[in-house]
């Protein structure tokens, strides 16, 4: 188990890796008697891409939901872009966005209508231009005026990504961003996320089961198991520590309780 | 990041543009679905036809109802304002649950109060689509001019719509907290009010202990007021003031309950998904 106590002990505003986009301290979430998240602490620097890895029920989605303010922690603290969540959510919700397989966009509305509604909710200036730009970037033009419910899974994911990017968020939270996508589309989405991060200096936190995705996108990986942080480092450092050449092998080691020498 | 910050307009307090965005969302939905539009008109029309003929029949056989000048049809229309007002509010809310869109909205800068205001606006729009044809039918087929009630109609309407919003806010909170398993409450709750609100008969008909409960409900005052106007040709402003006072308490209580249920939904994690 990684002792991440030292991480939130750093200055709330800045640290060795620059100012924090997300700070989580001693976060616990109990659903009745189940400990979905069990005393986790971490700090994510602005402009970084961090992957939350873990099997089903590891607590990734609950952690992201608490960061977003959609789920209240049982105890502990979350700060997003310098503001306490959910108390000061009004200060930051316009500066962040998310995509999750647990929510959908209205199916009867066209893609353009959906993006218009969310663009207005986020007070995006020059909205029509922004929608055209996203349609071009994410290859939505052919179905911009088609109902969302009539799109394929891959097209829906791209639309959900367009919604997540509509306000040019400083912080992007993604839960399984490429689930249900074919390898070509998934690769294309990853490329777009990399481009977005580079051009907007955005912070990305993504939960994923896809180890290749995490290896390719993330500067840092937080591995969760049964609500706790099992490991927290760069992909290379983690693979070296477990004496493995892929994150998938590390994941299997952690999931099956095999701990390599040097691993925490 | 500065580029990003400059793109975003930060709003504090209630924002009219976010309310407009939500109203636009429901408008798009309504216009994209003719069954939804038809449903808004279908039941009110059926109601007025059924009760209109009944009123005609009773008027011919009963001297009291002949003098009562359309009190049955008036009651049907006012009841529909109450019932459709709540449904109009709650169905727009349910659309978000059915679409699994609640998480997107709650994660956006949209505030709960803005969300509720947009639902109120939609309830007025849906009500207008359903009730205006109803009043025209009453005028042309049953010779009852609903709008001839005049200024008191504004007091009746406002009191009924406030009650419908309060109930709409309360049941929406229940669905938010308990998921779509609680959906049936949306459709049935208002009918529980019907016997006690004395829609078609005076409060005096009820046993004394039930009258006490009936007078706790704002719509009771409206229906009594309507009968006083149509039968006795007297506008009872005192009844309207009482109704408004109770409505104010009910509205504040339902909003506070909604916020408590929203918080509880966040505690149990029911905002993600929104299923049963």
Automatic annotation (TrEMBL), chain A:
Keywords of this entry: ATP-binding, Nodulation, Nucleotide-binding, Transport
Record GO terms (molecular function): ATP binding; ATP hydrolysis activity
Domain named ABC transporter: residues: 22-251
Keyword field contains Heme: no
Residues passing through the membrane, by range: none
Keyword DNA repair attached: no
Highest taxon of source: Bacteria
InterPro entries: AAA+_ATPase (IPR003593), ABC_transporter-like_ATP-bd (IPR003439), ABC_transporter-like_CS (IPR017871), ABC_transporter_ATP-binding (IPR050763), P-loop_NTPase (IPR027417)
Function description: Involved in beta-(1-->2)glucan export. Transmembrane domains (TMD) form a pore in the inner membrane and the ATP-binding domain (NBD) is responsible for energy generation.
Family statement drawn from the similarity comment of this UniProt entry: Belongs to the ABC transporter superfamily.
The protein's name: ABC transporter ATP-binding protein
Automatic annotation (TrEMBL), chain B:
Matches recorded under PROSITE patterns: ABC_TM2 (PS51012)
Keywords carried by this UniProt record: Cell membrane, Membrane, Transmembrane, Transmembrane helix, Transport
Pfam family of the protein (one): ABC2_membrane
Membrane-spanning ranges: 64-83, 115-142, 154-176, 188-210, 239-262
InterPro entries (UniProt xref): ABC-2_transporter, ABC2_TM, ABC2_TM_bact-type
Compartment(s) of residence: Cell inner membrane; Membrane
Its membrane topology: Multi-pass membrane protein
GO cellular component: plasma membrane
Domain of life: Bacteria
ABC transmembrane type-2 domain mapped to chain residues: 35-265
GO molecular function, one term: ABC-type transporter activity
Recorded family membership: Belongs to the ABC-2 integral membrane protein family.
Name of the protein described by the UniProt record: Transport permease protein
